[in-house]
Amino acid sequence: MSTKYKIGVFDEEKTLVASIKSLQERNLAIFDVFTPYPIHEVLHLLKRKSKLPTAGLIYGITGALSVLAFLYYTSVLDWPIDYGGKPFNSFPSFIVITIVLTILIVTITSLFTFSVRARLFPGQEAVIFDDRATDDKFIIVIDAELLGGDAANEAGRIMSESGAVEILEKDLAEKK
Amino acid sequence: MENDNTQNMPFMKENLRLSMPFKIVTGILIVLGIASVAFGFMQDPGRTWANYLVNNYYFFSIAMGGVFFFVIQYISQAGWSAGFKRVPEAMMAWLPFAAVFFLLLYFGTHSIYHWSHDEAVADDKLLAHKSPFLNVPFFYIRMVFYFGLWILFARMLRKFSLKEDLETGTKWFEKSEMYSKVFVFILAITFSFAGIDWIMSIDAHWYSTLFALKNMVAAFLHGSSILILIVLLLNGKGYFPFLNKYHLHDFSRYLFMLAIVWGYFWFAQFMIIWYGNIPEETIYYSVRWEKGWQTLFFLDIIVNWAVPFFVLLPIKASRNKYVILIVIFFLIIGQYIDLYLQVMPGTTGALKFGIVEAGMFLGYAGLFALVVGFTLSKANLIPKNHPYLDESLNHHFQ
Hints:
The complex is a heterodimer. Chain A is an alpha+beta fold. Chain A folds into two domains: 4-49 and 126-175, Alpha-Beta Plaits, CATH 3.30.70.3450; 52-117, no CATH class. Chain A has helices at residues 13-25, 40-46, 52-78, 91-117, 144-147, 149-161, 172-175, and strands at 4-10, 32-34, 138-143, 166-171. Chain A has a four-stranded antiparallel beta sheet. Chain A starts with a strand and ends with a helix. Chain B has one domain. By secondary structure, chain B is mainly α. Chain B is globular. Classes of the chains: A alpha+beta, B mainly alpha. The interface between A and B is small, with 10 and 8 residues.
């Protein structure tokens, strides 16, 4: 992870979106965008695709199958009990438990996956590029180390041209 | 800037005109229906009355699905559907016809409802106990009452909607919302009772507290599917030019969500009875579990729940017109199977599908299409002055 970033602060959604577009026109890679509320156009422009739903589907299928296998093991193989003459392996009565446990399994494992991918764990200090992004400002973050000095400066120029109210430079290493 | 869209949109094809081929085809279907009813009464009156009930309830439930859809759009103040509101309005126009058909059921009461025979009630403690509620005069008094309320509210909402076209402002919208809220409560109670009266009382000894709710969701699900079918057919003819993939996604969400709820209730009703294993309850399912009915029994849950659920699960499929049309095709068959399974084992007791069944269904379908088409052609297809109309015309989400 690089440590040097260029940050453009915007007042409005409109100027932010325009700035993202002109940055992309010049092939200047955007590291990330932080907004006070979700903006569809930003999601669209950044082309970020999450694989979390796919992971969730895999967890769901594995979860459902393992719960059914567990129920089969407990009520057919290990300790069969006759309930009102019903077959030991009675699918309808397994369904409710399977649904509930599958939901639990998917929720917990998805949360876990997300936390690992986002490098979140208890005690982790969050990297906040600009505090005002949690309030009413929109910010674009450019990875200055990845782009190199000239390109980062050009990105800063483009952002201020397209309406950024402030351009900041941040070195994460300095803090430590 | 964006408000001008209403003027610029190419929906100058404002009024629907019923084409001659449409009138001819529906006319042929109606004649076919009448012929098969006549043929049925000559062959086997009992079977024909049972079919009469199935088809009555089928198209009535679709009209009620339109009503549900309409009132829920107002209650939730949904914006995306504002442009399509003429379609559920037109479906509501079937209610007076349904009322007439249901009242004509009077002449077939004895061949459908076991409890309507005095001698059956005399030998039967349970039926005697239920007779203060379940007797022929009160049955029809209730029917008149239900239909009276439904038609009154449906006409009122239609009137408000047409008046809205003439005036700007949100007066009529707010009024429609208010009356929709009242109507939905009335629907919940009266439609539950109607389902219990007309369908569940066929098996008068059997009862299920989930029955009415399941049938209500079935009406909503299948009514929505017909509504979407009408929208897509009209779109194919060049109406509703603003229909985009987001509208389609929202429409198919209704099918998806309601199919899940329907499947949930279906399973809840089945599992409680299956698990409890009380003979007076399981008799209902044990009949439907036998050789002849078993295929239909499983087809019911597959067609009404599994098909919409698995087909509409991927986002691409739920935004595809042709995929939605295939699901609707299955759901049209699904509601018939569901009703057939609810009515036939208790009335004719025989699994038959022939000229009478097919002909009557086609006849009803023709009349329904004609009534809905005629009502659609009476008013401009896209409403004016609806506060959310712009949102509907420019509907967009991620």
